[in-house]
Specification:
This protein is an alpha/beta fold. It contains ten helices and 14 strands. The chain binds manganese (II) ion.
């Protein structure tokens, strides 16, 4: 079983790196594509099933693509309630889905995958959620856990930073904080990622960890990507969706009130229009 899992992560990582839709660290969907776009998933297996149900038969719908982000780490909602993290199962299901439909399921990099693969810890209520993930992998894979983790981390390293539709709708996990805008290197979308980009002062770290979503940051990332509207994750959204400005919104897919977007070909809709048309995951039978 572990050999198959390792092989799946290796194959998916190779496919991510060699994707014909990818330029630099951005995936560009074809002109006629329709996209189902999810926010942070955080190991929510039921919501992954709902997204898969909404995506339906991808073989019979060749223009349909799916965009996912922040797959791992189940986040405790109160002190002392760190859940046993089953998110590696959700991750493995996504990777199998990717391999079943080459070039159709796109996962973009989130700060939780970055932290997990680089050993930068994330603490919640004083407990390490990165440790919780490795413990769960160790319990499940025993002696092979280190090899499985190495394959998972290589897969994380293969993930693009953003995805864009032909109409200029871009999906990116987060934006740099205002205090980093002066030194943020926006060429990171187009050039090879260096180890320094992943460290605290690096461009990938800044991009994925910022929380302020200011006008300045939105404009900077839109300009770097050449995009019209940004779909973001990262910030928890109790109602599933939050309009930041006319051209930026946040969605979340990691709880019972989460949503997804379904976007057709054509010019990127406004953030408000996308929010109005967001699909509650609870409305989809898994
Ligand atoms: Mn995040």
């Amino acid at each position: 079983m572990w050999e198959q899992v390792i092989r799946a992560f290796q194959q998916a990582a190779s496919a991510n790196r060699a994707s014909p839709l990818r330029t630099g660290n951005v995936v560009h969907l074809p002109d006629d594509a329709e996209a189902i776009i999810a926010g942070d998933l955080h190991g929510h297996g039921q919501n992954l099933l709902r997204i898969q149900a909404l995506a339906g038969d991808l073989a019979a719908n060749p223009r349909r693509h799916v965009v996912l982000q922040e797959l791992i780490h189940q986040i405790p909602c109160q002190e002392g309630a760190l859940p046993a993290d089953g998110s590696h199962h959700v991750l493995a299901r996504v990777v199998r889905w990717q391999l079943q439909h080459p070039g159709r399921i796109h996962v973009i990099l989130g700060n939780h995958e970055l932290a997990q693969m680089t050993g930068q810890d994330i603490l919640k209520w004083g407990a390490s959620i990165c440790r919780s993930f490795t413990d769960a992998v160790a319990r499940h894979y025993g002696d092979q856990a280190q090899d499985v983790l190495a394959a998972i981390y290589d897969y994380f390293g293969s993930l693009p930073l953003a995805l864009q539709t032909a109409g200029g709708l871009a999906v990116v996990h987060s934006l740099p904080a205002d205090r980093h805008m002066r030194d943020f290197d926006a060429t990171v979308f187009a050039r090879p990622i260096e180890p320094g980009d992943l460290r605290r002062s690096g461009a990938v770290y800044q991009l994925l960890w910022g929380r302020s979503f200011t006008r300045h940051a939105i404009d900077c990332v839109k300009k770097a990507l050449g995009s019209g509207t940004l779909v973001l994750g990262h910030q928890p959204q109790p109602t599933g969706v939050c309009v930041v400005d006319y051209d930026a919104l946040i969605i979340a897919s990691d709880h019972a009130g989460g949503v997804v977007l379904k976007v057709g070909p054509g010019p990127a809709p406004s953030a408000q229009r996308l929010a109005d048309q967001a699909i509650p995951l609870a409305s989809i039978a898994p």
